[in-house]
Amino acid sequence: MTRGDIPGCAGNMTHNGAFRSAILACALPLACTLFPITAVAQGLDPQLQEIRTLIREKRFPLALESLRLVARQIQDLRLESVAPAFPAAPAGWTALPALSLLEEDEIWSNRIAAQRSFVAASTPARIDLTIDVHTPFGPAVALSFNPIVVLGDPLSRLVPIGSEKALVRFNPDTGEGELRVLVGRETLVTARGRGIPAPELLIELARGVDYSLLRRASGL
Prior knowledge:
With 220 residues, the protein is an alpha+beta fold.
């Protein structure tokens, strides 16, 4: 992280006093207000206290590194909160642990991007199911649900998924398929399959997602 990466701290600060003042102005509110009572309940309070001490002692590089580690832990907690929304593995398939897809520079964002992969027991088939809360791709994906766009692609169709609607595209020649469900405007569920015999596997998985949990997760 550079000085320009810190919200409210961008600029050409070459003077040590100005830089230290900016770090104090930015890091302390972040430590005190970005991580609320829920984080404290998860055992992060000692780390936040340590960050305050590092700032008072003007050990700013260590304070920033500690903030980064705490932010990563917060994102891990958010991942744990959406992991139960993933469906169980279909018969004959194994579900791998859910993983975070966030890049390092996204740990400060409100986005939750998680993936669980499903592998077949007797074939090399694989399905990757992702849940993307506060996704930046919502508006673009919404355009792909336009019926005119769907009619223009013979491999695509719209399928009901409970109260939601899914866009399914499957190529029988390659065994590759993709399913997308846009929940509200900012939560995207995507299932991508390779080596699968039919798109029904994607549809089955999508119908097993806990969409009510995802709607609640949009507030996390």
